[in-house]
What we know:
By secondary structure, the chain is mostly beta strands.
Amino acid sequence: ASIFSLMPPTGNTRPRSVISPVIAIPLFICFPRNADSIVLVGGNLFDNPGGIYISNDGGKSFQCRQTARFYGNGQRRMYGRCLARNPLRPDELIAGEDFDGLFRSEDNGLTWTSVGLKGCWFTDIRYDCVVANRVYASAPAISDPPAVNCGSRRVAGFWRSDDAGATWTKLSDSAPLEIVQRGASEELLGV
């Protein structure tokens, strides 16, 4: 997969870097205080897990900082909202992958710590727009793709953390693929 530069106003693109021809990139985010700092998740269904990658040179090169299972090709592209940045503390990130749970970084992706919830396939992670330090994680009951090298069935559920992802409370045994928050309210919508 490649990272491309979009050159307005023409809309032309030029490649910036190639991570691997077999890595699908479902999501990447830039650091608000430094546009050259990029964190992305990538992987594919067929090879060993991909991981969480960082770049500090605007995407010219990337370094894998955490091995993890992320998908994003074809029909799995919709399962890609699995990386979120805390809007109040931009150095803090949470990533959720297939089966090994949630990972949290407090240094813009340089180091990652497992925060649990193993056995899930996370399709959406969102920081609350209203309540500080609240995060939601969605892991619906999905059987596609099969749990590659996972050894057991996935756990479905919808979780909330009120301490920026350090601990989690299960709110429901079912979960949507994607969630959004309605404006400045605490109401969530899911599909």
